[in-house]
Design brief:
42% of the residues lie in helices and 14% in strands. The protein is α/β, with parallel strands linked by helices. Strand 13 and strand 14 form a beta hairpin. The longest helix has 24 residues. It binds beta-D-fucopyranose (FCB).
Length: 460
């Protein structure tokens, strides 16, 4: 079989660049109420008729809670430096307050030790969306008390495994939680209220900053930061209306998070747009949010195109689309990284998720997912282009290790580099898994022997 040639890696990626692969708890773990796990807002949201495209849920998912050791073997055989996973808050603290669940903490303890035993560095995310449902009953992220509950939870997880993980991410994609979960209602908790959404966004940022301070106060050796979903935003046409809509969307998606994290407060244009829907901010909040981070992560899948007063039809752009209907535009990743580098004083920057869903077919034990290989190769190349233009990049992670529960899309959308048969739960590495493994081997030879060794390896 022939694979597209990996991007020339040797001169581009620093020796200490971290290559990884990512997952999240609700999407792979299953064990919905195993060993004392509490209910999460996603367990609950999945029961809302029509919320999930195929009517499915994460009760079993990839059954990773029982198959974790074999999954770690797959990660080790891939040859990555790092594995990014998330902790299910209701698994380790079923009520989101008070007692911690030893069985849940023990699971992540073994996972971390299992990674280290296999030579893979753990990158832990505290909140990849599965908030304990009982906290939602008390107002969820829109309630200020949840900020303090999160900080307690962060302290406990850090004191249990923080000595052995490389990086702790507070939140994954706070924009998604706030806007898709509380304003558009398409993700848990399924609310449709802009004022509530923006209060949730503020509390997510505040809890991030206070958690960073708490981890440092307990001398947690792990680095700490946040992961944002960032896309470059384009107007659909040259009209002034579309330009204004794109500027506002950039404010809500990018600057609303980046500006306060870097000490600039919330962007004035977005505050003006929000009016009465702007969040209540107490004195000291903005200082806490701007607590210096050890790293910043971004997840990148596509660009965003905005039309005033309506939706932009991606089919009109002529770009190739993934199975999610997202345009494949790797050059926009380079542009985004350059813009971040230009506009904010960044700490080490990671692409913490990048990947694509395609309609894969398992045939005779193989999945020939050339489209996914093209996607990954071109986006890794786009990161290399940004590095060559002066952006300091620290790492890149593929989303995702396994096909998994893709939120409101259910199981129909497959992002894995390993195929999962949802009847038998059998794992089958796809061609993209083998491609990434070979690419990483070439990287390692480059580290050891210089670019000549890589080029020879890639020709072989
Ligand atoms: C990101 C999420 C991740 C996954 C990918 C496709 O927004 O962080 O869990 O669903 O999208």
């Amino acid at each position: 079989m022939t694979f597209p040639r990996p991007p020339q890696p040797a001169p581009r990626f620093p020796d200490d660049f971290v290559w990884g692969v990512a997952t999240s708890s609700y999407q792979i773990e299953g064990g919905a109420d195993a060993d004392g796990k509490g209910e999460s807002i996603w367990d609950r949201f999945c029961r809302v008729p029509g919320a999930i495209a195929d009517g499915s849920d994460g009760r079993v998912a990839c059954d990773h809670v029982h198959r974790w050791a074999a999954d770690l073997d797959l990660i080790a055989a891939l040859g990555v430096d790092a594995y990014r996973f998330s902790v299910s808050w209701p698994r380790v603290q079923p009520d989101g307050r008070g007692a911690f669940n030893e069985a849940g903490l023990g699971f992540y303890d073994r996972l971390v030790d299992g990674l280290l035993a296999r030579g893979v560095r753990p990158y832990l995310t505290l909140n990849h969306w599965d908030l304990p449902a009982v906290l939602q009953d008390a107002g969820g992220w829109a309630a200020r008390d949840t900020v303090h509950r999160f900080v307690d939870y962060a302290r406990q997880v850090a004191s249990r495994v923080g000595d052995r993980v490389d990086a702790i991410t507070t939140h994954n994609e706070p924009w998604v939680i706030a806007v898709l979960g509380h304003e558009n209602g398409v993700f848990a908790p399924g609310l449709r209220d802009r004022r509530v959404a923006m209060q949730a966004a503020h509390h997510l940022l505040l809890s991030h900053g206070l958690a960073l301070q708490a981890l440092r106060a307990q001398a947690c050796p792990s680095r700490a930061g946040i992961v944002l979903n960032l896309s470059p935003v384009f107007p659909a046409s040259d009209s002034p209306e579309d330009a204004a809509a794109a500027r506002l969307e950039d404010g809500r998606l990018v600057r609303w998070f980046m500006d306060p994290l870097f000490g600039r407060g919330y962007p004035a244009d977005v505050l003006a747009f929000l009016g009465d829907d702007a969040p209540r901010v107490e004195s000291g909040d903005l200082e806490a949010i701007a607590t210096p981070m050890d790293f910043l992560g971004l997840n990148y899948y596509s660009r965003s195109v905005v039309r005033a007063g309506g939706w932009f039809d991606v089919h009109s752009s002529g770009k190739r689309l993934t199975d999610m209907g997202w345009e494949i535009v790797p050059e926009c990743l380079t542009a985004l990284l350059l813009r971040l580098h230009r506009d904010w004083p960044l700490p080490p920057l990671y692409v913490m998720e990048n990947g694509a869903a395609f309609q894969d077919r398992l045939q005779d034990g193989h999945v020939h997912d050339g489209d996914r290989i093209d996607y990954l190769a071109s986006h890794i190349g786009a990161v290399g282009d940004a590095i060559e233009q002066g952006v300091k990049m620290a790492g890149y992670m593929v989303w995702s290790l396994l096909d998994n529960f893709e939120w409101a899309s259910g199981y129909a959308k497959r992002f894995g580099i390993v195929h999962v048969d949802y009847d038998t739960l059998a794992r089958t590495p796809k061609d993209s898994y083998h491609w990434y493994r070979d690419f990483l081997q070439a990287q390692r030879r480059a580290r050891a022997g210089g670019s000549g060794a890589v080029r020879a390896a890639l020709r072989a």
